[in-house]
Here is the input.
Amino acid sequence: MSLNHVRPWRNIYRRKSRQIMVGNVPVGGDAPIAVQTMTNTLTTDVAGTIAQVQAAAEAGADIVRISVPDEASSKALKEIVRESPVPIVADIHFHYRRGIEAAEAGAACLRINPGNIGDEKRVKEVIKAAQDHNCSIRIGVNAGSLEKHLLEKYGEPCPEAMVESGLEHIRILQDNDFHEFKISVKASDVFLSAAAYQGIAEATDAPIHLGITEAGGLVSGTIKSAIGLGNLLWMGIGDTIRVSLSADPVEEVKVGFEILKSLGLRHRGVNIISCPSCARQGFDVIKTVEALEQRLEHIKTPMSLSIIGCVVNGPGEALMTDVGFTGGGAGSGMVYLAGKASHKMSNEQMIDHIVGEVEKKAAELDSAAEAAE
Here is the structure.
């Protein structure tokens, strides 16, 4: 829950959901909203897949999903799970046997699609495997693969059909005394996704995994996901998120964290507040921010940095950040520390200097956090 008693208009009241475990990651309840991504390598390329999982984990991913389309992938999964620094979700479509094999291989969670996993008897076999291997399940409803009887009933993919699909599958799990599940109701259409998620949030207390499926490339997909996921998170809906981009999985993780950071729901790394720049700028803001984003990727401590081109908004923004720089005249600007003007610095030396100040502040915050434990 994100609460601010001084500024109540910032408050987000998260929907109350029960908590499950995905490996060692708690999902739902009062746990932090987990960030997921998915590998796009061939699962049978064990080395390549492990490298991608490790890169995603380094970027901040809490959970990584891997597709298991065939028996060879099931065999590869066992080795990948063993080397993974984060819990692995096995993505299962069409072949229920892959779900059983993935549970046996050590997957922390099975993602199964009600529209294509098979009849209830086969689902029960997957449930049994999950129970036997301490594996959770995500019910993954997709607008593009709804069950035939629901499409005949409703005529097209719609929020009601997606919610009904999810609830039918929940019933199967609960009838088999299985309760370690979360659910998603994804569509590529933002309006359809949002309505379906609102409906499922009202109908169950299960943890909810958010996503706008097949959102598009890095820019368009980021915007679509920010609109869809941002609005749902603002309403308090969502316990895990995945930003689906036609891009490197690391970019999905970055975007996911930025969405959560913008709403005050998760904090990781440096939050850079910067102006778009204009003719008033005292230095090249755009190139500076690009350089700082790269140079500060290694900082995981939550903190803020303002980079503002001139004194119109610079001092005011710096009041609210841990470190700040505001452009001035004669080739130099003002460095702010803890909201207060500290010293001048030349534009030429500014990037190296700011990196040093951020690293110093991060170390101070880390030491204070350790002392408070």
The first helix runs from residue 46 to 59. The CA atoms of residues 33 and 239 lie 5 Å apart. The two ends are 21 Å apart (CA to CA). The mean pLDDT is 94.
